[in-house]
């Protein structure tokens, strides 16, 4: 896992590069699902992908609740999307 300063740097760079596209997220989720189904991506790797996405989303200000609650909610929702 990366440090928060590394995460903020990546976040800034992605914003500067214009990576705000839902299409990119959909592609990542589909790729993750496909790799899991073929056995090329194990649970640990899936968790690392999910945690990277959660870390990025957690940098945004939460609308309500605690940071831990938001992270857990994001993890559950991503797990549902990738079939984990």
Summarize the structure.
The chain is built from four helices and no strands. By secondary structure, it is mostly helical. The radius of gyration is 13 Å and the shape is globular.
Notes on the protein architecture:
This protein has 84 residues and is mainly α. It has one domain (4-82). The chain has helices spanning 4-17, 22-37, 43-58, 67-82. α3 packs across α4. The mean pLDDT is 79.
Features:
84 residues; mainly alpha; 4 helices; 0% strand
Q: Tell me the series of helices and strands, N- to C-terminal.
A: HHHH
State the helical fraction. over 70%
Continuous helix count? 4
| N- to C-terminal distance | 19 Å
Note the overall shape: globular
What Rg is obtained from the alpha carbons, in whole angstroms?
Answer: 13 Å
In total, the number of strands is 0
Please summarize the sheet with the most strands: none
Given as residue ranges, the uncertain stretches (5+ residues, pLDDT < 50) are none
SS content category: mainly alpha
Number of domains: 1
Strand content: under 5%
Q: Taking all residues together, what is the mean pLDDT? A: 79
Write the layout of secondary structure elements.
Layout: H1 4-17, H2 22-37, H3 43-58, H4 67-82
Helix pairs in contact: 3-4
